[in-house]
Amino acid sequence: MRIIKNTKWIPVLLLIGLFFLNLPIQAQWTKLIGEQTKQQDTAKAELKCIPIKITKTMRIDKVTGNNDGFWIQKESETIYKFGDMKEAVGITLKPGTYYAYPILKPDERKSQVVVSLR
Questions:
Q1: Residue 12 lies in a domain
Q2: Which domain holds residue 91?
Q3: Per-residue pLDDT tens digits for 22-71
Q4: Would residue 42 count as lying in a domain?
Q5: Which of 99, 73, 68 is nearest to 84 (CA)?
Q6: Is 48:103 a contact under the CB 8 Å cutoff?
Q7: How many domains is the chain partitioned into structurally?
Q8: Which member of 10, 21, 87, 103 lies 3.0 to 4.6 Å from 82 by CB, making a disulfide possible if both were Cys?
Q9: Can you tell me the distance from the alpha carbon of 28 to that of 16, in angstroms, rounded to the nearest whole number?
């Protein structure tokens, strides 16, 4: 059995170990955020979403926002459309690049959706 003579490194090694143990937990959560804005004088709407690329299958854990539902695209194909945010909870997304966009409520000009993945 080897005894560590220089004990000043023990706290540093413990911190490094805790960091690496915690890393997979932190990396398991991600959010997909999209918004739709309707221009004032026209029927045109602007869609914005920062796409996320997932490398493993992830599950929709929570959906929030001010909308009348939303849709999810994988690359440029719509793969899901939900009339209610609760419908999406539990759905799994396979590896790929995803976008989410909210459906505007009547008489609203801007809405947002936040899809939490785990």
A1: no
A2: 30-117
A3: 555 444 789 999 999 998 877 789 999 999 999 999 999 999 999 999 99
A4: yes
A5: 68
A6: no
A7: 1
A8: 87
A9: 20
Record the tokens describing residue 32, joined without a space.
Answer: 């997909």
Number of residues that this document lists for the chain: 118
9 falls within a domain: no
Torsion, CA 37, CA 40, CA 45, CA 50, rounded to 10: -30
Is 24 part of a structural domain of the chain? no
- Give 82-115 pLDDT, tens digit per residue: 999 999 999 999 999 999 999 999 889 999 999 9
